[in-house]
Amino acid sequence: MTYLVNGLYIIAFGMFIYGLMGLTGPKTAVRGNLIAAVGMFIAVVATLISVRHTSNWILIIAGLVVGIALGVPPAKFTKMTAMPQLVAAFNGVGGGTVALIAWSEFINSQGFSHFDEEPTVHIVVGSLFAAIIGSISFWGSLIAFGKLQEILPGRPIGLGKLQQPLNLLLLIGAVAAAVVIGIGATNDGVSQLWMIAVLVLAGVLGLAVVLPIGGADMPVVISLLNALTGLSAAAAGLALNNTAMIVAGMIVGASGTILTNLMAKAMNRSIPAIVAGGFGGGGTAPGAGGDGEAKQAKATSAADAAIQMAYANQVIVVPGYGMAVAQAQHAVKEMAALLEAKGVEVKYAIHPVAGRMPGHMNVLLAEAEVSYDALKEMDDINGEFSRTDVALVIGANDVTNPAAREDASSPIYGMPVLNVDQAKSVIVLKRSMNSGFAGIDNPLFYADHTSMLFGDAKKSVGAVTEELKAL
């Protein structure tokens, strides 16, 4: 029976890897996701086979039913605009599950000092590591969810200069409690209290780490928490001697770490700097000229925007969170099709951290069946703006802010941005003059060659489309 279980685990994590490979492109992403899901189903079956002598089948079945009931509806019915929140929530559930598994195993064994055989180092360290990291991931993900859902303010919430010393004390406390448990320096009753202390201190640390991070850094935070959840799952798998958990956890941890590093580089910020407290929170700021005098944005109409784009040689669409909120991707695809029918070349400029999660814009545009070849990464498209007649910015703020290149006093100075301001003409679709998630003003909106088309992005794009049809 052991050979059967191990064989199923090998098949399962082989499908995990193959499925992950499919996620590298939109054409194979759905198939890759299905392959990975089948792999997880096989892993669950293998686990159930391995515990065939258990007397807790009612609890196991109940857990599966509850998990399906709670997991399927959100995944099926959540709108694309709320997908970042869903990712944060699901990631948090994973971390919380790992923490509970570590706690449960500790309770069942009555503490590591009461194993039938002396517990090995990898069991002790793996379980305690899983408890700490899983708890951090769960509570940190809840804060990320709250900020993305706007239940909590997007601005940093912290204790200023006292925040980092507090975080350090919490980390030292959680590790110290884990060490006390690991060396078996307590009796059974007291050891349970120490285990609870580990979970509580790690949980408070998760809250304390993410609360001071501003909304502008949330995409990186989601990726980082995802990596932590993977590492905690791998550690739990090591303690439980579960091959599927080890491999799946390492895949998630490694891919999440790589993605976090790439996104941090895209923002020209280090991961420690992000964890130390970001910037952001939104708001409204007045435009200012070089002499400090307020400037006014220039409004335009759908008819004027349509005329500019209809007679352009090249139009670059720059999607942002505003497009996601308005669910305007299908309207954008229809508008682009009309422009292309008139001989206008249309491209899409994708910033790595546009939106609220990694790849947010790619997913939205792929949903609207926009050709993947038309989606251009920042490094590939930035040289095109100076040769572009019209840049159409749809709800993107911080990723188009020229202050990142030109203003050394700006909080985002040094962050690579899309060179939208270099286009001959810029049309910005926004509901209002509110700033983006970084909470800072964008000089692009007040430039002489920029005009603002105010309103819901979907309605504005639809109005432009109707004007294009009339030309």
Automatic annotation (TrEMBL):
Topology relative to the membrane: Multi-pass membrane protein
Protein EC: 7.1.1.1
One Pfam short name: PNTB
Ranges annotated as spanning the membrane: 6-25, 32-51, 57-74, 86-103, 123-145, 166-186, 192-213, 220-240, 246-264
Residue intervals of the NADP transhydrogenase beta-like domain: 8-466
Reactions performed catalytically: NAD(+) + NADPH + H(+)(in) = NADH + NADP(+) + H(+)(out)
Top-level lineage group: Bacteria
Gene3D superfamilies named among the record's database cross-references: TPP-binding domain
Subcellular localization: Cell inner membrane
Keywords: Cell inner membrane, Cell membrane, Membrane, NAD, NADP, Translocase, Transmembrane, Transmembrane helix
Enzyme class, first EC level, given as a word: translocase
Family indicated by similarity: Belongs to the PNT beta subunit family.
Purpose: The transhydrogenation between NADH and NADP is coupled to respiration and ATP hydrolysis and functions as a proton pump across the membrane.
Protein's name according to its UniProt entry: NAD(P) transhydrogenase subunit beta
Organism: Nocardia suismassiliense
